[in-house]
Input
Amino acid sequence: MRTRRPTPADLPALAALLSTNECLCILGRAQAQPEWVTIGKAYVSNALRTEYASFENCMARYESPASRLWVLVDESDSVLGSVGVIEDPQHSTHFELVRMYVNAEHRQRGYGRLLLDELFGHARAHGATQLSLTTPSVNAPGLGFYRSVGFSKVRAFSITDSFGDDQGKQHTLELTEMRMDLAATEAVAVT
Output
């Protein structure tokens, strides 16, 4: 396994990775929570319509010099995961982790940590002192993973929207913001 920058040929695989691994869809189905599935599907649909509509759209999100997207590929160069980092335009030492996905059948093998090793090294090399992320609060597996690599919960907050509900029903989703002080964890290797 290795990480690399994505190419235009990876766009369908990135879209499929998002579509099949969105945590709200997976958790909603597993826990019989149709509202989570509705919100997750709306999130995926919006990303496919905007960010993943073209490779140019996808890469535009990472246009600042310190922002980056990586894919995790196997020996045959098939995309198994992704992770991105966005530099905060107001605070160049603050970065946001985005698009963290590992294909479900390849989890629990250290691939998420491999992706984060790449991200942490890049962020530190570009002067980042703080890394943040936001994920649904119901994403217990994700929250546990992020805690295991050094993130701490900052706050929980809710957003309310129709999230693409065909009948316009409003849904509320609680999100958890997590943060990591990269300077304090610099000596800690992610393995």
Summary: Helices lie at 11-21, 23-30, 34-49, 55-60, 111-125, 140-148. Confidence is low (pLDDT under 50) at residues 187-191. The first helix runs from residue 11 to 21.
